[in-house]
Specification:
Elements lengths: L8 H14 L3 H8 L3 H9 L1 H11 L9 H19 L6 H14 L9 H10 L2 E5 L9 H14 L9 E8 L7 E5 L14 E8 L8 E4 L18 E4 L7 H16 L1
Parallel strand pairs: 5-6
Antiparallel strand pairs: 1-3, 2-4, 4-5
Helix pairs in contact: 1-4, 5-6
């Protein structure tokens, strides 16, 4: 039985690089370095520490990065630039997912797209997060304060359970993120947005009671409602070609609301 070799620091570094670059198995590494599997496992487990020690001993100030990891980063950066050239919004989790896919394609099994790795990737490539678009805050504050004073006069004498507020909003259920990671200094321009939408009217009392939401879609009975009784939905469903609120729908809802308040 041949005597097993005790690995030096240099041997461990070579072992780690072969594992990362050529994806050799533990058995193949044992044969190549004539050592036991325990030494192989320990070297792989402590690769970051061993790389740092080797780097320190060699007098280099820069951390050693494996060739495999560098390839992932190069491919990922090219992918990022290509996506932003098409005005596609990119978030941190999207980058992490893409990095993991690239590592798998390259056969790198020990790559981890952690939050720490993501932060370092963004710093290395000068990537920051920016708002793609948004509405300007152009409401006159004097108008707001005047309305607040007027509102106190209007609700005077009513109980909290009899004071309601209703408002409608557009629900763009296929909307894309409104923020994206971009190269620092670049304009943050978005692409074409999906116009698929619903209109939702929410209504609640000052006492906390929430009324059944009114939802307006484009179809009187969408396919997803097949074999369903629309009247039993947890929302009041209405429809028109543009999924917008109309005077007719609003009047119907107010009549229903008024009748219900009389009970």
């Amino acid at each position: 039985m041949s005597k097993k070799t005790t690995l030096t620091l240099s041997d461990k570094i070579k072992l780690i690089e072969l594992k990362q670059h050529e994806n050799l198995s533990v058995k193949e590494l044992m044969v190549k370095f004539k050592c036991g599997k325990t030494q192989v496992y320990e070297a792989i487990k402590n690769k970051d520490k061993l790389m740092w020690v080797s780097c320190k001993n060699s007098g280099k100030s820069k951390r050693v990065v494996s060739v495999g990891y560098e390839q992932v980063e190069r491919d990922l950066y090219r992918w990022f630039i290509n996506c932003r050239s098409k005005s596609l919004p990119i978030s941190g989790p999207i980058i992490q997912t893409e990095a993991t896919k690239l590592a798998e394609k390259l056969g790198i099994s020990d790559f981890k797209a952690s939050n720490g790795w993501l932060d370092r990737f963004k710093r290395r490539h000068n990537i920051v997060c920016k708002q793609i678009n948004g509405e300007a805050n152009d409401v006159n504050q004097d108008t707001v304060e005047n309305w607040k004073r007027k509102l106190l006069v209007l609700i005077k004498g009513y109980e909290a359970k009899d004071i309601y507020n209703a408002d409608e909003t557009g629900l763009f259920f296929r909307g894309i993120p409104t923020k994206s990671l971009v190269i620092k200094g670049d304009a943050c321009v978005g692409g074409k947005k999906s116009k698929d939408r619903l209109t939702v009217l929410m209504c609640g009392s000052m006492a906390g009671e929430i009324r059944k939401p009114l939802v307006i879609g484009k179809s009187m009975k969408p396919r997803c409602f097949k074999n369903m009784n629309i009247a039993l939905l947890p929302v009041t469903w209405k429809s028109n070609k543009k999924a917008w609120m109309t005077a007719e729908i609003m009047e119907q809802w107010l009549q229903y609301f008024n009748a219900d308040m009389r009970l």
